[in-house]
Structure formats: structure tokens, C-alpha cells
Amino acid sequence: MDREEKVLDTAIDALISRCQDLKTSIASFILKLEVEGENVKWPSVLDSFALISGQISNLMKVLRNEKTPSLRNRVLLPLTLCPDRDEELAKLTDNRVQAFNHEMVPDYLRTKPEPEVEAKDQQLILRATQITPDAGQKQITSINKIVNNILEIVKSAKEDWESDSLQKASAAQSSNIGDTHTLIAAVSLGKGLKDVVSPKPAIANAAQQPPQIPTAQVPRSGPGKAPSAIKTNIKSASSTIPYSR
């Protein structure tokens, strides 16, 4: 009995170590996503995924090892439940579980899904067993056709996007970013514009006398006659003929 307990303790320590490494990798990856956001580089994301995948594989190797006792044959029973806050438990779980009470135990020590989930799972299994092989093959063929069409659409869109990117990269630049920013700042904020002082229009003086119109002098005439402003020139008829008989 002591030997089995030692083997179990060794296996549990190995599992705890692997889980701790996996937990650290996941926490660092989440922190990277939160800090860098949309600026995260894709090769860095792939490296993080590869590291997490490798650690999961190591954890599964420990579980499948012949020296590891079958944990399914072990039953974990809570000895005491306390509604108060447990500082040691909160420290071990990074404040995710602060108390080992009646509310937390059914969720964390559950070995089977909830009854509602289990009932839905049984319904899906029953529906799957009722499908004939021919109908199942037709559904598989149909879903494969849909997936292939979606892949073709994605590949075509990718090729178009790459072609557009190459054309934009090879095209000559027809604008200047600095000039564009200067123009936007001038239009929206008035930056760089100079004030032009326009001359003030002269204010007309209301008391100014209107211009006088010159009048022609009229010669005096005799009494009883109206003055005439028309000057006439009467010549004799003989003076108009340049020759005489």
C-alpha cells in the first residue's frame, strides 16, 4: 500500500509540474495578446501555440505512461467544507477559487456533465444511430462539397488580395503624405494660413454736397422774346451757289 501511494504521489507531482508549465505559457500568451493587441506578430503567435501544444503533449505522455496509476480508479472526496475565505486556496488558484464551499464543490469535483447536457448528448447520439449508412454517406459528401467550395472561395480571395497588394506596391506614388497632412490641418484647423487685411471702404459723408451740373450761358434777348439757346446761322442763297451765269 505504501508503494502504491508513493507511485501515486510521484505521478501527481509530475502532473502538477507539467500543469504549472502549461499554466505559465498560457498566462504569458494571454498577456502578450492584451499588451500588443492588433500589433502582435503572427510568427510570435505561432511560437506560443507551438509551445503550448508541446506542453500538452508532454502532459498526455505522463498520463499515458505505464508507471502512472490509473486516476480513474481514484475518488476525490471533500473532507470539510467551509464558507469562509481560504487564503491558501486563493493563492494556489490565483484568486479564482476563494472558498471551498457547497457552491464550488459540485462544479470543480464533477466527473460527469450536468443532467441537461447529458440528456442533449444522448439525444444527439440516438439521432446519429438512426441514420442509415447511405444517408450518412450522402451527408458526408454534401458537407465535403460545401467545404471544398468554401476553400476555393478563400483561395481565390487570397490570390486577389495578394495581386492587389503587389500592384499597389509596384505602382508609383501619386501623393505625398506630408502635404496631405498639411492640407488637412489647414482646412480643419487653419494651420499655416495668414490673415489678409483688406482696406476699409470710405464712408460717404451724408452732408456732402452733390456735384453741380454746369449750365450754359444764355444771351440776353430783347423784351417780349423768349431766350433761345439755339444758335442759328442764316446765309444768302447766292452764297451757296459756287458759280453764276
From TrEMBL:
Keywords: Activator, Nucleus, Transcription, Transcription regulation. Belongs to the Mediator complex subunit 8 family. Residues 201-245 are annotated as: Disordered. InterPro entries: Mediatior_Med8_fun/met. It comes from Leptotrombidium deliense. GO terms for cellular component: core mediator complex; mediator complex. One of its GO terms (biological process) is regulation of transcription by RNA polymerase II. Residues 230-245 have a biased composition (Polar residues). Its main location: nucleus. This is Mediator of RNA polymerase II transcription subunit 8. Residues 201-217 have a biased composition (Low complexity). GO terms for molecular function: RNA polymerase II cis-regulatory region sequence-specific DNA binding; transcription coregulator activity. It is found in: Nucleus. Pfam families: Med8. The keyword 4Fe-4S does not apply. Component of the Mediator complex. Component of the Mediator complex, a coactivator involved in the regulated transcription of nearly all RNA polymerase II-dependent genes. Mediator functions as a bridge to convey information from gene-specific regulatory proteins to the basal RNA polymerase II transcription machinery. Mediator is recruited to promoters by direct interactions with regulatory proteins and serves as a scaffold for the assembly of a functional preinitiation complex with RNA polymerase II and the general transcription factors.
